Amino acid sequence: MEYTIQKLAELSGVSTRTLRYYDELGILKPARINSSGYRIYGQHEVNLMQQILFYRELGLQLTQIKDIVNDPAFDFSKALHEHREQLLDKRSQLDQLIANVEKTIAQSEGRMKMTDKEKFEGFKQKALKENEDKYGNEIREKYGEETVKQSNEKFMNMSQEDYEESVRIESEMREMLSNAMKSGDPAGELAQKAAELHKKWLMFHWPSYNKEAHAGLAQMYVDDERFTIYYDKEKPGTAEFLRDAVHIYTGMKDR
Question: Is the predicted pLDDT of residue 118 greater than 70, yes or no?
Answer without folding.
Answer: no
